[in-house]
Amino acid sequence: MKTWFTPKDIAGQCMVSKITVTRWIKTGKLLAVRLPSNHYRINPVDYNAFLERYHIQIGGGPFQPKSK
After folding, report:
1. 13-29, pLDDT tens digit by residue?
2. In the beta sheet, which residues pair with residue 36?
3. Of 13, 38, 43, 44, which one is least surrounded by beta carbons within 10 A?
4. Is residue 64 part of a domain?
5. For residues 31 and 42, is the Cβ–Cβ distance under 8 A?
6. Based on the structure, what is the number of domains in the chain?
7. In whole angstroms, what is the distance from residue 68 CA to residue 54 CA?
8. Residue 16 lies in a domain
9. What residues have CB less than 8 Å from 61, skipping those under 6 apart?
10. 13 found inside a domain
């Protein structure tokens, strides 16, 4: 099963607000899928590409999802 991230997940990792992550999505910097409920989900591959493209470093390298 593939794990997709929410803007809240990414905001916590990048230490920015959820509004900032939503702005990144709306401006095309971060690719995301918009669900019928109007919520966004971000593919881990797209998120890691975003981190590399904008030289954003988070603790321990590319974001790995928490096991549920």
Report:
1. 999 999 999 999 999 99
2. none
3. 38
4. no
5. yes
6. 1
7. 29
8. yes
9. none
10. yes
Tokens of 33: 């899928």
Token couple for 45 = 């591959």
Question: Hey, how many other C-beta atoms are within 10 angstroms of the C-beta on 2?
Answer: 7
Report whether pLDDT(45) > 90: yes
Measured distance CA(46)–CA(67) in Å, rounded: 19
What residue type is assigned to position 63 of the chain? F
Helices (H), 1-68: 7-14, 18-26, 44-53
Token pair 């989900």: residue: 41
* 4 vs 64, more confident: 4
Whole domain around residue 15: which residue ranges? 7-53
d(CA 62, CA 5): 13
